[in-house]
Amino acid sequence: MRNQRRVLLLMVALTISLFTMAQNSKELTLQHLMPGGRNYSSIVAKNIKQLQFAGDNYIYVSGNKIIYASLPDGKESTLITKQDIDLVLSEAKADTLKTIPQIFASEEEGAITIRFNHKGKAYKIDCQAKKILSEYTFVKGDKHAEYSAEADAYVTTVGNTLHLHSADGKRVKMVKDEGEDISLGSNYVHRNEFGIEKGIFWSPQGESVAFYRMDESRVKDYPLVNISARQAQLQSIKYPMAGMNSHTVKVGVYNLKKKKAVYLKSGKTDERYFTNISWSPKGDKLYILEVNRGQDTCNLVCYNAKNGAKESVLFTETSNKYTEPENPLLFISDTEFIYLSRKDGFRHAYLYNTNGEELKQLTSGEWEIIEAQLSADGKYLYMLTTEESPLQRTLYKLDIASGEKIRITPEEGVHKVQLSASGKYYIDNYSSHNVPRVVKVGSLESGAEVKELLRAKNPFDKFDMPVVIESGTITAADGVTPLYYRMTRPVDVDSTQKLPAIVYVYGGPHAQQVTDAFMWNYRGWDIYMAQRGYVVFTLDNRGSANRGLEFESVTHRQLGVSELADQLKGVEYLKSLPYIDGERLGVHGWSFGGFMTLNMMLNNPGMFKAGVAGGAVTDWKYYEIMYGERYMGTPQNNPEGYKKADMNSLSGNLQDRLLLIHCDTDPVVVWQHTLRFLESSIDNGVYPDYFVYPGHGHNVVGPERVHLYEKITRYFDDFLK
């Protein structure tokens, strides 16, 4: 991997001092370090509020002003103030703003417009003329709003009904379905797997709207209880568990002129996932990547958007593990498109025609495309990739015709980019292990920097708590694969000290804990514990994200096996350090990390003196279909795999102090998981500790998160110090 190995060797030994000795410095608390804490904003690197393109120029919010800058000179001026907006709203007899809300900017015929939601309405304002161009009326319950600039309208959903909100303030019913278990346009189809983020899709011309119709009648109600009422109230959800009935999905198309909806003629749909809906450039066809329930086969299917007829299957992609399309097609013309696939083991770009013929593979190598976007003219593909390192995200420009690839962002680190409307400029917001944040505007034509907008100071410089974060690699249990770790520890440790250590673990798919973002993508709680004399260690084991299909799918049908073997290699490395007390080890994780906490403790009794498992999966047969069956199959066709991963059956191995934490209304890892673990613990005569956060979902968010991590800290203080 070119000079990457040299970089990695340097990273192994690299340590980063986070804090400088400053006069009048103070100690960091959980109120500083936890999202939701009173002082959390003080340790977040400075950013530019709501920075975005308006055409080929940019705007951002500064206090009570929206600032506008023309490019390439970058000269800034006030576009509009809150006072101006309030005056416009008052003239329309609407309430004024408390602060400038979330805005969406665009350039329309030379005028800069902003859209925002306010008191049950959405407004579009011409910032130069200072007048309302459009006013859209919402009602309580309207969700999943999707806007079309071409139609100048929104579509929203309320349960089993779709509504159209036009620029004149009218709200009309588009489609209504019958049945309590039907939802239209929901973004929760297939439980947000396969990259699904929305359920409403406007055609390019704004003439039609495609939408998901989800029927959950085959899925049993799952009880959640709201205890905030004097008499607790049942709030059931639909939760399809692995091996059980799933919901069924159809795709509909509503034509605004005809005021009529048709449904795609997809045949029987109860054992299929409809992922990544793409409109053709002309708006006459829909392309859908359809995955079978076994998730080993994916078909790209073309439908006629006018009558719903199935026109063709362009190609079929299969895998002996699983297929997981997560990106819609990128059309470069009416007849050619780019498809992102892992069929060669890494997520790369392929050029196809609409006959289903692969014209050429556009990218290749042992790296992944994380995000991709076409230029406005369809000539270039802009990609955020891991080509330089799995720890980094780098922007490249690919000439589709010639295959020439140019690196746009020269700096090491993790880049997040926005492209201007024409593809002339980009906004880059990046950080690296020793760079808190840099925001700049650059040219996509030359790659040159146009203007640096911000270079943030280290927000920790005002604190005097010597802590070091270091990153490096160890070798996986297979004896070959390098794995990346992050370690947070007190500064100036030596062999005369014997410090307790905590393994913070996640370890599951679709997650990467260690990156070359600021301070190696640090966690606030890790810093808090390090300043209290702990070492906190995190390892991205095989099975985690952004390292290719083989790296990720080694866990297929045996969740917890390879992950455990790799994490034990991490423990082995920890114990080899002269300043680590191998008799005072702890482990903590949430969700998949909660499962891994149990997995590590119960399969290695006596190794960890204390552990905290939050929101833990204890038995995969109680988890949802889409995710669970992708990685484990069903309990019916993989009974041995489910048995090995069943932590309830291993509860009798518990020898150490274990705290289980769960939220009582968790809709992702339902409360049943850890309650079943308690049941098996009683049966086996072992004594875990338990804590519940009432009224929270899959995690504890808001100010209560400080309480959560104080609870976790006290537990480790009790049993590791």
Describe this structure in a few short sentences.
Helices cover 15% and strands 37% of the residues. It has 721 residues and is of the alpha+beta class.
| Protein structure class | alpha+beta
Q: Count the strands?
A: 46
CATH C-level category of the domain at 4-44 and 459-720 = Alpha Beta
What is the first-to-last residue Cα distance? 43 Å
Report the total helices. Answer: 11
Could you give me the name of the CATH homologous superfamily of the domain at 4-44 and 459-720?
Answer: Alpha/Beta hydrolase fold, catalytic domain
- Binned, the helix content reads 10-25%
Query: Beta-strand percentage?
Result: 35-45%
Unreliable stretches (pLDDT < 50, length at least 5) are 1-24
CATH topology of the domain at 4-44 and 459-720: Rossmann fold
So what's the overall shape? globular
